[in-house]
Design goal:
The protein is an alpha/beta fold and 130 residues long. The protein is 32% helix and 22% strand. The chain contains 4 helices and 7 strands; from the N terminus they run E-H-E-H-E-E-E-H-E-E-H. The strands form 2 sheets. The chain has a 5-stranded parallel beta sheet with strand order 2-1-3-6-7, sandwiched between helices. The longest helix is centred in the first third of the chain and has 13 residues. It is globular, with a radius of gyration of 13 Å.
């Protein structure tokens, strides 16, 4: 298990973070935590189409992406973020085998996730697996 240092949580302050999550309670809790840490939350949204629209219309510095959204996969959003050079992490209860090979290297945060892990995955050095 990797150790995440609390100092990385401060990296979220002042950032515009897109939250793509279909579980309302988790999305709302994430929004509240990010706002408390000084981040501006874009969304949250449970839909791929709305996430793509938010990327076009809003400032987005980084994103937290649930992999499975109702009956759709979030990968079109990941592709758009990658094209724009916007960092993102996947947040899922599923293991890394569900993520296409092209996204190898992006952080997978298992639910329930810690914002410290997400902050480091977005803005810190790579997390070494033990």
């Amino acid at each position: 298990m990797s150790v995440v240092e609390p100092q990385f949580i401060s990296l979220l302050a002042g950032k515009h973070i897109l939250v793509v999550e279909d579980e309302f309670l988790l999305a709302d809790a994430t929004r509240k935590k990010l706002t408390k840490l000084g981040a501006t939350v874009v969304g949250p949204t449970p839909r791929v189409e709305q996430a793509l629209r938010l990327i076009e219309e809003e400032k987005v510095d980084a994103a937290i992406l649930d992999i499975f959204l109702d009956d759709k996969l979030v990968f079109p959003v990941a592709e758009k973020l990658e094209q724009l050079g916007i960092p993102f992490v996947f947040a899922s209860a599923y293991d890394a085998s569900v993520i296409p090979q092209r996204f190898t290297g992006y952080t997978l945060c298992e639910k329930p996730f810690e914002l410290e892990h997400i902050a480091r995955g977005l803005f810190g050095p790579p997390i070494a697996d033990a």
